[in-house]
């Protein structure tokens, strides 16, 4: 079963980070990605640009509307995701608990509506 981890963080918590801090953070995530690969559960990941770079588009009601920025103004923003393929929610939660984002923000776990592979 495929699960997507949506990684949410408060950008204010990251504002103080130096280039060295970012390099260390990338190493931590690299180790996590390596562990997912080694376990054979890794499917995909991406680190997203800051929420200020977002563009939101809607064609609801037949009229295109474009908004600079995210759909909702919230304290925590979506910063990236992981997709894994594991047997069940318990296994997904075990991997989510190991995700570095769980230590600084939140990891939302969503099962794929399309199933596994």
TrEMBL record:
Residues 1-110 form the YCII-related domain. Signal peptide: none annotated. It comes from the Bacteria. It holds the Pfam family YCII. Belongs to the YciI family. This is YCII-related domain-containing protein. It comes from Sulfitobacter mediterraneus.
């Amino acid at each position: 079963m495929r699960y997507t981890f949506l990684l949410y963080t408060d950008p204010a918590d990251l504002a103080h980070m130096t280039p060295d801090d970012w390099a260390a953070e990338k190493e931590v995530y690299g180790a996590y990605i390596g562990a997912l690969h080694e376990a054979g559960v890794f499917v995909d990941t991406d680190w997203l640009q800051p929420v200020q770079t977002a563009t939101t588009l809607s064609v609801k009601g037949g009229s295109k509307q474009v908004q600079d920025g995210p759909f909702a103004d919230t304290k925590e923003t979506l910063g990236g995701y992981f997709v894994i393929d594991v047997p069940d929610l318990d296994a997904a939660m075990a991997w989510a608990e190991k995700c570095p984002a769980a230590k600084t923000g939140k990891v939302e776990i969503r099962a794929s509506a399309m199933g596994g592979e």
